[in-house]
């Protein structure tokens, strides 16, 4: 073939690629992620006494709804991409309906409790469903509102941090280095978790706030490597309080 003909063919091929995106079949093209795609599910449990501390420090009028027993409670199940937040609020047509949760409402009130007393009824569950549940429905076991919340209760029953930490000899009322808590969880569950803290700006004391463990899309435990804020926002050089009572708060100074 003449060299000018070759040049003309190359030019025409390039023009087709530019104007039509690609001459290759779609199955060979790189798919862009849609807004509801994710890599892992983060199951987040929170320590109610620290959550109450955060709530009460904002106003002397605030009171807390705490579980009847000393236990960790559910924050949520969060579909997440590696090294990023989200996805979130994936489907606005999946509106929250509290009546759907009637069969498990009593369990939710104890284990997925809205610690911020005085909040609008069902507002916490509504928020978790709208923000995270509408994305989690991509997985069959969490494919509707009832299944999403039932899965939270199921995961708490199997991976309750009260039990996990106790097996690692970590108990409320004591202080630990953040890495010691992470090591304890890894020893018991054989995965790397995430721990989050809050710090009293006046006393500089830090408290255990949340612990997060991760699952793949088949709901098998996996390392939380690569998730946002991994593995902790705690100061690794200082001890961390695992409080056995609501910490004292300083409303005007925090």
Describe the structure.
The protein has helices spanning 3-20, 48-57, 105-111, 123-136, 145-159, 161-167, 178-189, and strands at 40-46, 73-80, 174-176, 194-199, 206-215, 221-222, 240-242. The radius of gyration is 24 Å and the shape is globular. The protein contains 7 helices and 7 strands. By secondary structure, it is α+β, with helices and mostly antiparallel strands. It starts with a helix and ends in a 12-residue tail after the last strand. The strands form 2 sheets. Strands 1, 2, 4, 5 and 6 form a 5-stranded antiparallel beta sheet that branches. 33% of the residues lie in helices and 15% in strands. Residues 3-34 have low confidence and may be disordered. A hairpin with a 6-residue loop joins strand 4 and strand 5 (206-215).
Instruction: Detail the poorly predicted runs.
Output: 3-34
Strand content: 15-25%
The chain-level structural class is alpha+beta
Note the gap between the termini: 78 Å
Name the helix and strand elements from N-terminus to C-terminus, one letter apiece: HEHEHHHHEHEEEE
Task: Please provide the count of β strands.
Answer: 7
Average residue-wise pLDDT: 86
Q: In DSSP terms, counting alpha (H) and pi (I) runs of 4 or more, how many helices? A: 7
Signal peptide: 1-21
InterPro entries: Ribonuclease_T2_eukaryotic, RNase_T2-like, RNase_T2-like_sf, RNase_T2_His_AS_2
Active site: 75, 128, 132
Keywords: Disulfide bond, Signal
